[in-house]
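[Automated response] Your request has been received and processed.

Submitted sequence:
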Amino acid sequence: MSLEALVSLRNEHARAVGRDRIRLLEAVAREGSITAGARAVDLTYKAAWDAIDAMSNLFGQPLLATRSGGKSGGGAQLTETGLRVIGAFHRLEAEMARVLRMLEPELGGTGISPTNLVSGFLMKTSARNALRGHVTRITADAITAEVAVSVSDDTTIYALITKDSVDDLGLCVGRDVFVLIKASFVTIAAGAAPPLTSARNCLSGTVVRCETANVNAEVVLDIGGGKTLAATITAYSAKALGLKPGKPASALFDASHVLIAID
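Generated structure:
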């Protein structure tokens, strides 16, 4: 298997910059203008300017020097900072790919890929539930999209996100993603048979743990495929439902409460 490292750079005040933004920067420099560079990477003029502004905000300095039209016509060229950013980005990707290739033999036969390993180490989220899977279907209209993500052979989770988010994340069938669900968004129904409900997601499982405090309880379900899902419900509900380890139960949550993240 050929390993490829994908780098995304960001700070708390600016949007992330990844390979697609660097490709735009290279295209503008190669073509000599923002219009032609945007066309080369299949972006609109406005989207290209938005991306260039995002990069300038991230690095704190202009990456392109532009000139207005005149006898020689308008155009754009990389600043010294822009040249260094492109060079550093490619070097960083190459070094990450080299490290991943070194790790691959050590993980042979474990079922864990180097990419999974790095994501597991680096990903931080406040969501109690973060499950890796791959996109199996995208159904979209002009504004929203329902994305189906298979997290195991028997379990699919549905997320309702904006069409713009699908485009920004580069989502397509087969792409690896994470689904994020806060435990407080998950409700629990007791019993082996999933109830009839309007919730788009209804996952059958078995109670692994039920830790009860004075007010709330955390219920963890085994949903198969080595995956678990946690829910925060009231202690009263946990007692009323008779939730105990080994008991069958279902986890229910709306597709609009599911977030999607990528490496």
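Summary generated for your ticket: Helices lie at 19-31, 34-40, 45-59, 80-103, 114-122, 163-169, 235-241. The chain has a mean pLDDT of 81.
If you did not submit this request, please reply to this message.
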